[in-house]
Amino acid sequence: MNLHKSMTFRTLLSFIKKKCITGSICFSPEKLDYLKKRALEDGTLEKCTTFEALSAFLWRARSQALKLHPDQQTKLLFSVDGRSRFNPPLAEGYFGNGIVLTNSLCSSGDLVENPLSFTVKLVHDAVNLVTDTYMKSAIDYFEVTRARPSLDATLLITTWSRLAFHTTDFGWGEPILSGPVALPEKEVILFLTSDLL
Where exactly are the transmembrane stretches of this chain (predicted)? Predict the structure, then answer.
């Protein structure tokens, strides 16, 4: 058995042995600001977004919680809104989907042992990979293969924090609660605004 397969097997065993708990965690604006300050405190980065800081924090926390082997490769997979990145721009009035998946790979040991800024930079670099050329290549690849990305040792994050669910009114008033009917995978993190929880 080669090293990659044995590490994948070890990761699988760690999931089988551990009981995974699902739930909601609310990060107040103060906690989110604190995370961003922590990501910038060593001077490696000049700025970061809330998404980058929170995603990096949760990716590191997952690796720590699962006690992954330091050499185990782990992946963060998330979608990026590409509407502003298309060249030429999308047609005026376009309201369909305009996202593409991007990812970052790193060993569990590097995630855990380095400062938060290290992981934030990985997330930031994955976001910056998404250009017009990247999106068109991803569309072509999917059209030809219809392949889904591998989810081995992957944390999938999706954000709905900017979707205006709370303003939607189908004639009987504003929603009390909003969220997905089902999640696409067992291990997925969904960012929502607190007024939807």
Answer: none
Residue 104: CB atoms within 10 A of its CB come to 22
Residue 157: φ, ψ to 5° = -120, 135
Instruction: Convert the pLDDT of each residue in 148-181 to its tens digit.
Output: 877 888 999 988 877 777 777 778 888 777 666 6
What span, in angstroms and rounded, lies between the C-alpha atoms of 186 and 155? 10
Query: What sign has the CA pseudo-torsion 184, 185, 191, 195?
Result: positive
Q: Report residue 32 as tokens.
A: 């989110």
172 vs 153: CA distance, rounded Å:
43
Sheet with strand 99-107: strands edge to edge: 99-107, 73-81, 154-159, 188-191
What are the pLDDT digits (tens) for 38-96?
999 999 999 999 999 999 999 999 999 888 899 999 999 999 988 889 899 888 888 78
Q: Looking at the DSSP assignment, which residues form a beta bridge with residue 190?
A: 158
Report the predicted TM-score, pTM, of the whole model to 2 decimal places. Answer: 0.81
- C-alpha to C-alpha distance for 74 and 84, rounded to whole angstroms: 29
Please tell me the total number of residues recorded for the chain in this structure. 197
Mean pLDDT of the chain, nearest integer: 84
Nearest residue to 73 via CA among 119, 11, 143, 14: 11
- The two three-digit tokens of residue 190, written as one number: 């969904």
Q: What sign for the dihedral angle of Cα 160, 163, 169, 173?
A: positive
